[in-house]
Fold each of these.
Amino acid sequence: MGNERVWVEEAWAKSLDKTLRNTARIGSGFPHASQGGVYDLAEPAWWTAGFWPGMLWLLYEGSGREELKALAQACETKLDEVLDGYVRLDHDLGFMWTLTSIAAYKLTGSEPSRIRALKAANYLAARFNLKGRYIRAWNPWKEGERNEGWAIIDCCMNLPLLFWASRESGDPRFAHVAEAHLDKVLHHFVRDDGSVYHIVVFDPETGERVGPQGGQGYAPESAWSRGAAWAIYGLTLGFHHTGKPEYLSAAMRVADFFLSQLPDDHVPAWDFRAPEELRDLRDSSAGSCAASGLLLLAEKLGGAGAGADVGAAAAASAAKYREGGERILKSLYENYGAWEDPVEEGLILHGTSNYPQGTNIDVPLIYGDYFFVEGLARLRVGRPMYWE
C-alpha cells in the first residue's frame, strides 16, 4: 500500500480501538444516535438495530477479535423477539437481518442464522403490493393512519435480503419481488437529473401513482442527500444481483448528481435543495453510505460485472466513482472523526437523521459509523460485503 493510503489503515485502527472501548457500555445493545457524546440505546425493533452488530462483524473480520463476534451473535439472538413477534416488522427487515443473520451465516455457517434470514425474507416479500408492484414501507405510526400505499427509496437497501433468499432457497420468487420493486424505483423515484424522491405514494387498491411526499427531505421536490445515497448503493446492488444494465445506468445518473452537489470538503448537505441558510447542515451518514456505494459502482464498471469489453468511458467512470468515494471517506476521517474525543462514543460527527421532525440533528449516527467502517473495509481488502 502506498503512502497515499496510509490514512485508510490509520482510520481502520482508530475505528477498531474506539469500537472496542464502546463495547464496555453498549455491549449487545442497539445504539442509534449519539446525544451528548453517548449513544442512545434503541429498542430491538428500531430500524437501525442491524448496524452495530454489522459493524462488529466487519471489525471482527478485520481483526479476529472474538469479543466482537460474541457481541454480534448476542445482538442477533435478541432480535428473535422482533422476528417472532411479527407486529413490529416493516420493510427494514433487510437492514436488520442482512447485517446480523446473513453476516453470521456467511462468516460462521450458522444454520440458525440462515433460518432467521429466510424467515425475514419471507416477511419482507409478503409486503409486496401486487397491483402497485412495490414493497410497502412502514406500518401505521399512530392509530387511524393509512400508509399502505407508501414506498420509500431506502428500501433499495433491503432488497439484497431477497436476492440472497432466492439463491439460498432456489426459489426465484424472492428475486422477482426485488426486481419488481427496483423497476418501480427506476420509473417513479429517480428523476431525469439523478436526484431522487424519498417517498412516493401509490393507491394500494389500484397501484396508480398518487404523488411524492417530502419525507426526511426539505420538500417533496427537493433532493435529500441520504436518499440519493440509498439509491446509488441500492441500484448498484441491484445490478450486482441481476446484471440488468438499466440499474447500473440509473446508479450512475444518481452518482453523477450526488458528486456534482458536494461542497469543498466532499461531505454532503442533508438536502442538496434546501434553502441556502440550511445547506451548511451536513449529513455525514449520507456521505459514508454513498462512499461505499460508489466504491462498489466503480468495481462493477471496472471489472467483469460491466461486461467482458470494458471500454475507455466505463474505465473513466469507474475511476471517477472510486476517487469520489475515497475523497468522501478521507474527509470524514480527517474532518469529521471524533477520534481524540474521549467523551464522544460516535466515530463520525455531523450526521442529520430527520430535519423536518427535528430529531437527531448534527450528531453521530450508528449507520453513518457503519458505512464508514464498511467503506474502509472495501478499500483495505476489496472483498464482498454482506449485501453482496
Amino acid sequence: MTIRTAFLAATAALSLSAAGAVAQDTPIGSKWWPSAHGADDQAGSSNYVTPDKVTGAAALIKEGKAIKLGRDYEPAMPLFGSRVFALRIPGSPTGGTFGDNKVIWNDEFLATEIGQVGTQFDGLGHIGVRVSGEDDGSGIRYYNGVTGTEIAGSYGLKKLGVEHVKPFFTTAHLINMEAVNGGPMELGQEISVADIEAALAKDGKSGADIKQGDVVLFHTGWGRHWIKDNDTFNSGEPGIGIEAAEWLAEKKIALVGADTWATEVVPNPDSKLAFPVHQILLVKNGIFNHENLATERLVEAGVHTFAYIYVPMPIVGATGSAGSPIAAW
C-alpha cells in the first residue's frame, strides 16, 4: 500500500468515525477554539514574533553570514500525490521589440499548487478536521474553529489565507538528528522528546532554551533522497510524532520545519492515524509548518542557533506559500 493510498483510507476511516461527533468531542480531542490570540485571529503563532523576538534574533547576527534554506523549484523535484510543477516561457522572447533601443523581455507562466510544492510553508487553511458528517462543510473545523462553510471558496480561501500571516524574524534552533542517530534517519523513525533533548545537549543547550516565538527545525538526513531518489523520498519519512508535537506546542513556538515533506513521521506508528501532527500544530495551536528545507546547509556551516527570516508570499486566499527562508548568524 502506498502512502497516498494509506492516507486516503485512514482519512475515510476518520470521517466515518467522526459522524455524529460534536464540537466538544472531536476526533482530535476537545474543542480548541477560540484561539488564545482572539476569536477572530487568522495569524496564528506568527503573533508570537514580537519586537523583542526580532531584536533578540538580530543580536545573533554577529558574523554577517546568511544562507537560503529553500530548495530550487524545478519539475524534477519530488511532489506529493498528483501535484504538478510546470513552468513555461510564453514566446521567445515574450515581448518586444519596442523603441529605438530595441527592448525585449521574458515572462513566465507557472502552473502549480503554489503553496504545496518544493520548499513549502503550510498556512492555517491547509489542514482541518471533520468533526461531523454534514455535506455542506459545516462539519469541518480549522484553526480557531473556522468551519468548512466559512472557509470554502473556489477562487481562494475566504478565511485563513496565507496573506494573514505576519513576518518571521526570530530565533531558530536546529535539531540535528543525524548527530544523535549516528547517521541519517530512516523511513518511519519517530523523533521523541528525549531525542530532541539529546540533540540540544550535543550543542550545549536544553529544551529550556526553546522559547515562545522561536523556530525549531529538524535535520534528519532524509533530504539526501531529494531528486536523486524521489520514490524513496515520497514513500514516507522520519519525523516528529504526537509526543514531540505536543511538547513543542506547549512551548508556543512560532514554527516547526524539517528536511522532509511533512515534518512528521510517516507512516505514523498508529496505523489508524493520518498526519496527526499537522492537526496538533496547525489546527489546534496555529503553529506553522515549513517543509522540504535544505537543513544540511546549516549542518555544513556548523550552525545550530540563528536568526530565521521569512515572509510568506501574500497570495490572498492561498493555503500556503513557496519561497526560501534565510538563516543568518
